[in-house]
Input
Amino acid sequence: MSRVSSLMPRVLASRVLASFAALSVLTSVVLTSEALMSVALMSGASAQQAPTVRIRGTIEAVDGPVLAIKTREGEDVKVRMTDNVAVFGVVKTSLSEIKEGSYIGVSAMPLPDGTQKALAVHIFPENQRGAAEGFRPWDLRANSTMTNATVAETVKGTDGQNILVKYKDGEKKVVVPPDTPIVTFVAGDKSEVKSGSKIIIFGAVKKEDGMLEANRVNVGRDGITPPM
Output
């Protein structure tokens, strides 16, 4: 009996130690899972928050894939083109090319009644239909807007062409004065990305090394400055 009694503390101690060991392993698994989840969330947030920059200006020099640009604000910036960069020419076209069903982008100033008075209109080619669809603030001028949408109706008015455009969650009335620049995009190539070219980059991404990178460059042809 005394022998059995002497074994009891050892058995209990062994069970207690085993319980602590199991709890330690469980705690470690939970903490590891939480750490992995935290890293995943941080990585996701980092990917979603990659800052983009819109750049308008003139190319001053080209060094391989790197463009030295003098922006319209007078700043000097460098942008690295991706290996598969898409180059588009921005060319003049006419108001008559805006028809019902056309997909267009309208840089505009809002009027008191909510109508958008166009500063410039760009017509998207069919393979770019749906690009950045919607209505948003724009930085062509202070308080300017951008509407990318499909033309539902277009009629001639006293102050210019009156156009109704519709996008997935709304619509806007647009008036296009006779002197409004109208342009479209055409396929280009890297030979157009040269010193002296007027360009707009809609969304350069700031990479981890601090360099701005662009996968699309829009170049004004025939000396024009992209008006959007």
